[in-house]
């Protein structure tokens, strides 16, 4: 895992952990595919709604933050919230 992927993982962990009831079940797996980093997020089923938000508003906000950070690193990021 590169430095960029590690930094993105830690940033996303900082965003997600305070909003869930079971922070010990949060798993973030960054996968690098060329210039793109895919961040796979796994949370407890009971916390899924909290992470996604009403009509996906929280998920979209977190994706925007991650895209802004990735732009600074001249990389592309995709956030995938997995069941």
As residue ranges, the low-confidence spans are: none
Oligomerization category of the chains in this entry: single chain
Shape: globular
CATH class: Alpha Beta
Taking the sheet with the most strands, its summary is: 3 strands, mixed
User: On the 0-100 scale, what is the average pLDDT?
Assistant: 95
Identify the CATH homologous superfamily: K homology (KH) domain
Please state the second-level CATH architecture.
2-Layer Sandwich
Total beta strand runs: 3
- Main-sheet strand order equals 1-2-3
CATH topology, by name, is GMP Synthetase, Chain A, domain 3
What can you see in these coordinates?
With 83 residues, this protein is α+β, with helices and mostly antiparallel strands. It has one domain (3-82): GMP Synthetase, Chain A, domain 3 (2-Layer Sandwich). It is built from 3 helices and 3 strands. It has a 3-stranded mixed sheet with strand order 1-2-3, covered by helices on one side. β1 and β2 form a beta hairpin. α1 packs antiparallel against α3. The protein is globular and about 35 Å long. The relative contact order is 0.22. The model has no long low-confidence stretch (mean pLDDT 95).
Gist of the model:
It is built from 3 helices and 3 strands. With 83 residues, it is an alpha+beta fold. A 3-stranded mixed beta sheet has the order 1-2-3, with helices on one face.
Blueprint (SSEs and pairs):
Blueprint: H1 3-16, E1 27-33, E2 36-42, H2 48-52, H3 57-72, E3 76-82
Features:
25% strand, GMP Synthetase, Chain A, domain 3, three-stranded mixed sheet, 83 residues, alpha+beta, 3 helices
